[in-house]
Design a protein that fits this description.
Largest sheet of chain A: 7 strands, mixed
Radius of gyration of chain B: 18 Å
Radius of gyration of chain A: 22 Å
Structural class of chain A: alpha/beta
CATH topology of the largest domain in chain B: Rossmann fold
Number of domains of chain B: 2
Strand order of the largest sheet of chain A: 1-9-8-7-6-2-3
Shape of chain A: globular
Oligomer: heterodimer
Number of strands of chain B: 16
Distance between the termini of chain A: 52 Å
Strand content of chain A: 15-25%
Chain lengths: ~350, ~260
């Protein structure tokens, strides 16, 4: 079912939706970017169409909307474990196809890896609905087509921002009641990115040749990567977390157990009590991340983890190109195999 | 909310036995016995949570031998008998004891790696007919680091046992001094397809001990190792223990070495 709305009709729709949904989208935060006089675009609550940033890629992905950066999982009162109060609000997130595919990767880890689904993730995730932002061109660092994540049918509604109108396709009937009967109908099916400038060739091998793990190609990243973890935090599919307990300064008998995003590039990720740690150099961490995104995850779940959003390349302060690394790895593997 | 797999349950500490200056064995009440080789996530509220392997299994209890080296393990050492400890689990696959039946089993453990194999040795001590033969090879850094002294004395009476220390420190009265790898050659092996070798210890010890057995003709398929990694959840979500396509908490911690050797950190 489709509609053709004016900007003000769309804003009316947002007002109506807000009665039942928290509406989230990529929003501009002026002068909060990495460099002076640059903006930060990250996900936050939106009030109107003009707040949604369409013409630029968001710096951060919508990951934090479904997987909070820090989340209290228990409150401690003496030796009692208390679960925090559960939020019940429904969320409608405006996001692009690559990010919808990325959230499916998070679903896989948190709901399907291992016999027990994560109850915190499940409770938040089942309240989430997707408003897909039509994306037909992508941006200069995107390679979603190579990662087969440029398309999706997993959305509740799809939205195209035209010059004077907004086209909306509604797939989930729960949303049709928010459209006034007098609003003009229009047939609309969203298009997708047909081709990116950047293309990656993902190595197509059953097994990574043993020589790849210690190959010279990783040495460059040893010194170039500074282990800041920006690639991990901006990635829509990086799903790791660390749990930490705290107690309150003014009451040692009370405290919390929290879980917080963790980054495989950052020092301490593998540290064990007693002093053993793994992947001490940053080159090994790059190898670990890259192989997880384009090989290990695929071996376990049948699709690649990386969705080709390119945010790692956008945000690396050392200008490391992850997509460049995949192509280089593919070349090295082909040379090794032949 | 659905059932919360992160929610631990309280368990009473029945007995605390001092092993060394750093290690103690905590006997903890549990209802259902775990599989040998599995582990629990052990919590001290407001301090943290850590994965600990099981060093003994009995009727209504388990033992955990914990080294006082981290934030949580230090807090555990402040507990008394009758204190409550919080557990989730058991997690992981455990040792493939069915596949050990009728085989010549060698258990090689280094340092605190002896903890997860202690239930295995105890099991065969009580049921010696389950295996064709059991040989034990244990190594510790110094005589002061030796764990389960009394048990080892007991086991010696029934199984061929080599106990070595890296450094005799002038106080060692045993026969063997040197790394565990130096004593692999002293073990009399059976036909290779009748052997099962269990190796547990620090990563370097596993690597070089396995290499010694392989040098003697044992294939990687006949070697079983138990791996240790940082873990935050034990449920395949936090990502800390992932190596290659495996999660140590879900697919391990016990692996056949032909698989484990391919896992590069």
């Amino acid at each position: 079912m489709g509609w053709k709305l004016t900007e003000s009709a769309f804003n009316d729709l947002i007002v109506k939706l807000k009665a039942d949904y928290t509406i989230l989208g990529p929003k501009r935060f002026a002068r909060q970017g990495r460099f002076s006089d640059t903006d930060l675009i990250r996900y936050d609550e939106i009030e109107s169409l003009d707040e949604i940033v369409w013409n630029e890629k968001s710096t951060f992905s919508p990951k934090e909307m479904v997987f909070p950066i820090t989340q209290t999982i228990f409150y401690f009162a003496d030796e009692k474990f208390l679960e925090p109060k559960l939020e019940e609000n429904k969320l409608l997130i405006f996001l692009r196809p690559c990010d919808i595919n990325g959230i499916r990767r998070l679903d896989t880890i948190y709901l399907k890896n291992g016999p027990e689904p994560d109850s915190y993730y499940a409770h938040l995730r089942e309240r989430v609905r997707f408003a897909m932002m039509e994306c037909t061109e992508g941006f200069d660092t995107c390679f979603c087509v190579s990662m087969k994540s440029n398309t999706t049918s997993d959305y509740d509604m799809a939205v195209r921002l035209g010059d004077d109108e907004v086209l909306v396709e509604v797939k989930n009937d729960d949303f049709t009641r928010y459209f006034r009967p007098d609003l003009p109908r229009a047939e609309f099916t969203p298009g997708f990115v047909p081709e990116n400038t950047i293309k990656v060739a993902v190595p197509d091998v059953d097994e990574i040749p043993a020589g790849i793990f210690n190959h010279d190609m990783w040495n460059e990243y040893k010194s170039r990567c500074i282990a800041c973890g920006r690639c991990n935090t901006t990635c829509i599919t990086c799903s790791c977390h660390t749990t930490t307990d705290i107690f309150y300064d003014d009451n040692l008998r009370a405290g919390e157990r929290r879980r917080t995003w963790a980054c495989c590039h950052v020092d301490g990720f593998t540290d064990m009590a007693g002093g053993i740690s793994f992947r001490k150099d940053n080159g090994s961490r790059m190898r670990f991340k890259v192989l997880h995104k384009i090989y290990d995850y695929h071996k376990r779940f049948g699709e690649h983890m990386c969705v080709g959003c390119g945010r790692c390349d956008d945000n690396c302060p050392e200008y490391i190109s992850y997509s460049g690394c995949i192509n280089r790895l593919n070349q090295v593997i082909q040379e090794t195999v032949s | 909310m659905n059932e919360n797999p992160m929610m631990p349950t309280p368990h009473r500490v029945i007995k605390i036995g001092l092993e060394t200056d750093l290690e103690s064995t905590f006997r903890i009440e549990v209802d259902t016995p775990p599989v040998m080789g599995q582990f629990y996530m052990v919590s001290i509220p407001k301090i943290g949570e850590m994965p600990i392997s099981i060093s003994g299994i009995g009727q209504g209890w388990i033992d955990m031998t914990i080294r006082n080296v981290g934030k949580v393990s230090q807090a555990v050492h402040f507990l008394n008998e009758k204190s409550m400890l919080f557990l989730r689990g058991p997690y992981g696959n455990g040792f493939p004891v069915d596949e050990f039946k009728g085989r010549h089993l060698v258990i090689a453990a280094g340092g605190s790696g002896i903890a997860p194999v202690r239930p295995l040795v105890e099991h065969y001590y009580r049921n010696p007919d389950e295996v064709d033969k059991l040989d034990l090879l244990f190594g510790f850094k110094t005589p002061d680091d030796i764990l389960f002294r009394q048990d080892i004395e007991c086991w010696k009476g029934r199984f061929d046992t080599i106990l070595t220390v890296d450094d005799a420190c002038g106080i060692w009265e045993g026969e063997c001094v040197g790394l565990i790898t130096e004593y692999v050659k002293n073990i009399k092996l059976s036909e290779y397809d009748k052997m099962e070798i269990v190796i547990v210890g620090p990563p370097v010890m596993i690597k070089f001990t396995a290499a010694e057995f392989i040098k003697r003709g044992v294939s990687e398929e006949r070697i079983i190792v138990s791996m240790e990694r940082r873990m935050s959840c034990g449920l395949g979500k936090c990502g800390h223990c992932k190596i290659g396509g495996y999660y140590i908490c879900l697919d391990g911690p016990v692996f056949r070495y032909n698989e484990a050797v391919k896992l590069v950190d």
